[in-house]
Amino acid sequence: MATIKEPVQIPATYKVPYRHILAEERIDDTLACIAMVTHQTLADIKEQAFRFGLPRNGPAWVYPDMVSKLLFQWNLVGSEEKEADSIAALADLAILTVDWNDQMEFGRSVVWVHVRGENDQPAFNYVLDPANWLPEHQRITADFRHLKMVTPLAYVAVTMRPDIAAARKAK
């Protein structure tokens, strides 16, 4: 298990830059995470996933290659699935697998955000959890105690497309 210290609070002055989106169905967690980081609706991301080959009915899983295809449409890059030995080693923005079940060999996804410390604000981490069964206070939180976070932590790092990032720097 990842070592989880007593949580820090998300500073009251910090504005979460993502709109929280709840999963509607059992396999919507990863798609809801993509919707959050791309600032799209879950319905739009689902339709796009169906166009890219995700079955509308029956068994389905949103693999990292599908995550990458969907993110790319919104000027973001999804890495291959990576592993980290601690939460400190995670990317600044990631779709993180939590609540891993060894017997079933699957978990569920949350958005992981690391905010770098600046001036008088210390660094902190938080998650946006699309699970529709969670109480409101656990949906956007720096308290990870309700999550089963087993090391190595599996995640897909999310970054801006290099061509877009370079164009923004040039301005």
Commentary on this structure:
The protein is an alpha+beta fold and 171 residues long. It has one domain (29-170). The chain contains 4 helices and 7 strands; from the N terminus they run αααβββββββα. It has helices at residues 29-38, 42-51, 64-72, 162-170, and strands at 76-78, 82-84, 93-101, 106-115, 124-128, 140-141, 153-160. Strands 1, 2, 3, 4, 5, 6 and 7 form a 7-stranded antiparallel sheet that branches. A hairpin with a 4-residue loop joins strand 3 and strand 4 (106-115). Helix 1 crosses helix 2 (42-51). The chain is globular. The mean pLDDT is 91.
Main attributes of the structure:
171 residues; 4 helices; seven-stranded antiparallel beta sheet; globular; alpha+beta; 23% strand
Question: What is this entry, summarized?
Answer:
By secondary structure, the protein is of the alpha+beta class.
Overall 3D form: globular
Task: Report the C-alpha radius of gyration, rounded.
Answer: 16 Å
- How would you sum up the major sheet? 7 strands, antiparallel
- Which H/E pattern describes the elements? HHHEEEEEEEH
Instruction: Tally the beta strands.
Output: 7
Q: What portion of the residues fall into strands of 2 or more residues?
A: 15-25%
Q: Residue share in helices?
A: 10-25%
What is the total number of structural domains?
Answer: 1
User: Given the structure, what is the number of helices?
Assistant: 4
Structural class per helix/strand content?
alpha+beta
The low-pLDDT segments are none
In whole angstroms, how far apart are the ends? 44 Å
Overall average residue pLDDT: 91
